[in-house]
Amino acid sequence: DKRVEKLLSDPSIVRNRLKVNSAVSNAKAFLKVQKEFGTFCEYIWGFVGGKPIQTSFKKDGDIPATSPESDALSQDLKKRGFKFVGSTIIYAHMQATGMVNDHVTGCFRYKPCKALARNKT
Q: What Cα–Cα distance (Å) separates residue 3 from each residue in 8, 26, 40, 94?
């Protein structure tokens, strides 16, 4: 495809053919999930019951790289044709988007994030 070749010559992005091709196939898989579930958000939040997972780690070193939920989501995404969606990257996504509150208990953001989760419907 000409668009993929153009992307592979763009110095502002990672020009790995597998990753560029996976971005294209992931976009197609995303649209299928969106059509099936109404929104991608509905699909992905279903893996945590619609509410952020609350953890209570005391030290950064106690925070895991994966969880049973990220394992399940990763596995399901792969079954749906997504690429480069291992459990570690999925767990990082879950942390970044608030699906899991991994702020350590002494962090100034721990309690506010926990309170936000209680208000999520």
A: 9, 15, 25, 30
Mean pLDDT value of segment 80-99: 98
Q: Where are the beta strands (DSSP E) in the chain?
A: 53-54, 100-101
**Domain extent for 72:** 2-119
Tens-place pLDDT, residues 7-59: 999 999 988 999 999 999 999 999 999 999 999 999 999 999 999 999 999 99
CATH number for the domain spanning 20: value is 1.10.340.30
If you count DSSP H runs as helices and E runs as strands, how many of each does the chain have, helices first?
6, 2
